[in-house]
Amino acid sequence: MPDLSHFDESGASRMVDVxxxxxxxxxxxxxxxxTMQPATLRLILNRELAKGDVIEVARLAGIMGSKQTASxxxxxxxxxxxxxxVAIEPSGENRLRIEAEVTVQxxxxxxxxxxxxxxxxxxxxxxxxKAVDRSMQLGxxxxxxxxxxxxxxxxxxxxxxx
Length: 162
Description:
This protein is of the alpha+beta class. The protein is about 30% helix and about 30% strand. The protein has helices spanning about 40-45, 55-65, 70, 110-130; strands at about 25-35, 85-90, 95-105, 135-145, 155. The chain has a five-stranded antiparallel β-sheet with strand order 2-3-1-4-5.
C-alpha cells in the first residue's frame, strides 16, 4: 500500500505539493442513494412537496457543493472545475440514485469534488423531505470512476448499493 501522502515523515498533516505535476484531463464519477418510503418518492416525482422541486434543488446543491469542496475538506486543493453534471433518478420504488461527474484540467484529481456533489445532493433531498419522512437513509456513497494523472484509470466493477 502506498504511503499516505497527506502526512509528512513526522506524522504531521500537510497539503500535498502538486506544483510539479503535469496538467492533465481528469474526470471522476461518484454515486449515492437516498432510500425513503415509496410515498415520499411519489411526492418527489410528482413535485408535490411544499418546498418545491426536490430533484432540481438537489441537483443545484450538488453542483454548488462540488465547487466548495476545498472549503469543506481540509487538505483538498481549490480547483478550477471545468464541468459538473448531477443526475438524479428513481431507483426502484423507494430510492433515488444520484450520480455526479466532475472534470478539470489540473494537477490533481476531482474524486472529492464528485463525492461532495453526491453527498450534498443527498443531504438536500433529506432536508427537503424530512417533514414527511424522517426514516430516510443516505448511502451507500462511493466512487464509480476516475481518470487522469499518474495513477491512471480506475473503474468500480460493482456499483455501491447494487
